[in-house]
Amino acid sequence: MTHRNTARKTLLSVAAVAVTALLAGCGAVGMDPEAGKSPVPLPSPNGTRQAIAKENLVHLWPLTVDRGSIECRKDEQTVFVDESGKAYALNRKAEDAGVTKIDGIRRESEGGWQVGLGAMRSHALALCTTGKDKKKS
């Protein structure tokens, strides 16, 4: 075997280890506790309020608490309310109205990034439309 072939094999081995480490940091390798789970459908909303839990969003669940409710309030303020009744802002409109920022209960991914609020916020915004439809009826 030539020096060039040995160097090439060493480089390929190092590259393989680097790619594996990179994928592990992204959560693509390793044990994911949510692997194989399917989301449970959300219960029917009660006007502009709806119960929501980790099992409804599975991988997309963005919080360190497992359940609560989402609400659409005046002027499309979207909030998450934990089981103790404490409200957290899901959007800027709620923050501007004085609702506590949600950062204190945001979940971090394995890579250290905060899990996005998009899925939960979308469900809460849909309640704003539901509430308007009921008021028109």
Q: Would you mind describing this structure in some detail?
A:
This protein is α+β, with helices and mostly antiparallel strands and about 140 residues long. It has 2 domains: about 1-30; about 50-135, no CATH class. Helix content is about 35%, strand content about 15%. The protein has 4 helices and 5 strands, in the order αβαβββαβα. The chain has a 5-stranded mixed sheet with strand order 1-2-3-4-5. Strand 3 and strand 4 form a beta hairpin. The longest helix is centred in the first third of the chain and has 23 residues, at about 5-25. The protein is globular. About 20% of the residues are buried.
List keywords for this structure.
137 residues; alpha+beta; 2 domains; 4 helices
Strand order of the largest sheet: 1-2-3-4-5
Count the DSSP helices.
Answer: 4
* Broad structural category: alpha+beta
Number of domains: 2
Please write the string of helix (H) and strand (E) elements.
HEHEEEHEH
Largest sheet: 5 strands, mixed
Overall helicity: 25-40%
- What is the mean pLDDT? 81
| CA distance, first residue to last residue | 82 Å
Q: Could you tell me the number of beta strands?
A: 5
**General form:** globular
Question: Ranges with pLDDT <50 over ≥5 residues?
Answer: 7-30
As a percent range, the share of strand residues is 15-25%
The value of Rg in angstroms is 22 Å
What is this structure's SSE topology?
Elements: H1 3-25, E1 49-53, H2 54-57, E2 67-73, E3 77-82, E4 87-89, H3 92-96, E5 100-101, H4 118-136
